Amino acid sequence: MFTDPSEAPNGILNTRRFGPAPQNPDPEEEIEVYTDGSCHGNGAADAKCGSGIWYGQDDDRNTSTKVGPPLPLTNNTGELIAVLESIQQNKSAKRLKIASDSQYTIEALTKHSQTWLSKGLIGVKNPEIVSAILGEILATSTEVRLRKVKGHSGDTGNDGADMLANAGANKTVPDKIDLTMSGVIRAMGAKTNSLTQAQAYRLMMRHKAVGERTRTTRMMTRTRAAIEASTGVDLPPETVWKSLRIRKKGTISQKFSVFAWKSLHEGHKIGVFWKHFKPERLICQPCNAPIEDLNHILTECRTSGQETIWKLAQRAWGATGLPWPEISLERILGVGNIVVKNDQGKVLEGRTRLLRIIVSESAYLAWLDRCEWRIGREQNPLRLHTKKEITAQWKSIIGRRFRIDWALTNKAAFGKRALRHAEVKRTWKGLTMANNDKMLRDDIFAEGVLVGNGGRACQRRPPGRNR
Ligand SMILES: [Zn+2]
Description:
It catalyses: Endonucleolytic cleavage to 5'-phosphomonoester. 44% of the residues lie in helices and 9% in strands. The chain has 467 residues and is α/β, with parallel strands linked by helices. The protein folds into two domains: 5-205, Nucleotidyltransferase, domain 5 (2-Layer Sandwich), CATH 3.30.420; 220-460, no CATH class. The structure holds zinc ion.
């Protein structure tokens, strides 16, 4: 972490990217937060300590955390936890700018961190939290920047964070704070300083792998089981990760990779994520579902448009003459490894590629529509996406993927990595016009064909009907 890129020390704090990262970083993925800590009765055993992260006025990402023992209950603890959690919350952002009024926090993380690491954090205050922050920075692809703001000077963001920190301190039950990365950094000890970041990352992953059974392992196990059901092969986790990271032949989009990567880490702020501090967000209210988890969003929910989307997908797949696989969350996340075979058990390359494209794009659209409704449309039940909107979106997305495929055959532009014409034809066979490989079939992809009564809004359906 550094306040100015030119100040970045060698090696460890450089922000080399890991995992799938946006190819064309969207400027929106730059996130700015204000952090603050609060402590009434600084240092006392019964002190009330809290952290606040402020994104904007009434932003539902705004976070109040109550810090409890065994962490020291001090102002500085509150300040550091706010920084830690803001990094944990924004692992998919390209850049995270943190505004803090804490001189201590900024100096700890910019000026002193390198020396502290080289001494194994001995004699450092708050070593668990400082090392957890450094560990998170190492493990994320996000570029983290810290800037100092003046406290209590009428700055809206700083005041907002201050209020959230106070609210956190006043909560009754301490929140669970994830300090996993601290153990990682400390296990690496004094060697940390001389490691390249890539080495540090691999070490950290190994440490995690032998550590507790994480949420990631749980989701990975389920995903591997789905892949095994489809392919008959039990793939090691590395292969599954690799299928997301190495996007062979442009089959899976960068955005889907990032989404699936985060899903495998159970890193989305949905469902149980909210259990402790915003229980009303644990549920999916429109569907009356007890937990709004990813499985619900992608395969059951009324607000994500998933029902319409999967109908469109299944209908398009029908043109291949092959059976449509039942869609599950595990199939979606493991899509990079799922294969289509013929009756003789031979893998059909073109069909496999088409299924991966359709499933990944469809799932990602459901996710986007759900987020857009929750955040962009303020969860207004009168503003659910209509079937007509969803249908138009889906057709436009698949149509774009089709055009991208043909664009990828350009040898002059892509050289050895270009797709072969035959590959593209095999992929889309049955979905293109009989006399033109470069046009999708009107009856499947033309606007308005699939939806008779396209203007009808989903909200008129009785609650829970789609579940
Ligand atoms: Zn729902």
